[in-house]
Amino acid sequence: MITTLIDRYVAGADAPAKAIAGLSAEELNSHPVPGKWSVQQVIAHLVDSDLIASDRMKRIAAMPRPLLIGYDETAFAAAFAQDRIDPKLACELFRLNRLHTAALLRALPPEAFERWGIHSERGKVTLRELLNDYSGHLEHHLRFIEEKRRAMGK
Known about the structure:
Shape: globular
Oligomer: single chain
Number of helices: 7
Strand order of the largest sheet: 1-2-3
Radius of gyration: 16 Å
Number of strands: 3
Order of helices and strands: HHHHEHHEEH
Helix content: 55-70%
Distance between the termini: 37 Å
């Protein structure tokens, strides 16, 4: 079961790069769905959240009941100039982080996935749950990118 979860997590490594393929800088930063993030903002969010997820997973694996601090994704989007990031670099960072984190996870014994931490907003969360949640998080946001691509006729 754990191998299947890690395989699902790794399978998403290239997904952000594939999702933005063929989009111009203007298209990446447009808002084809009014009131929603641009594709580039979604990519920036995916990188931010995946880096945080990796840290959380490593903390749970290495520390007894670590505190996992929540973060405000809207504040991140407002604070950083996401329209000026290099989207290809962001996608590559996402890919490499997923591959690296998966390699670390594959080396853990099965019982490590039952270890848990305390999320400041959600409470108790196991390593297994985080691994599953972040695979689903990517899939959730890829649907938004696809919606934006359709709205742009892509």
